[in-house]
Amino acid sequence: MDRTGVRQRSKGLLGSMYRLEVAAAIADAEGQPVHAQELADATGLRYPRVQSELKHLLALGMLRESECDGRAVEYKAVSSEYWNACRSLLTEWEQG
Fold this sequence. Notes:
Blueprint: H1 4-14, H2 19-28, E1 34-35, H3 36-43, H4 47-59, E2 63-68, E3 72-77, H5 81-95
Antiparallel strand pairs: 1-3, 2-3
Helix pairs in contact: 2-3, 2-5, 3-4
């Protein structure tokens, strides 16, 4: 799927071409902790891009992080309508 238009809109609205896709994937986790690699797999984005978006969202207070099994970090979304809005926008923009 060509996401050029989605990514251009994401850049304009959210400041990053990939933020909308990552945020929508976090929303799809429905409050469950997520790992960067899982999000990379779900979105088809490269791990470093996903990791960068996670760090940004963490710095904004939209995510909490905790160490999981001593090597991986898991992230949990802070309750906010932001996540649902991103999921809705991604769906809308993918449809046309």
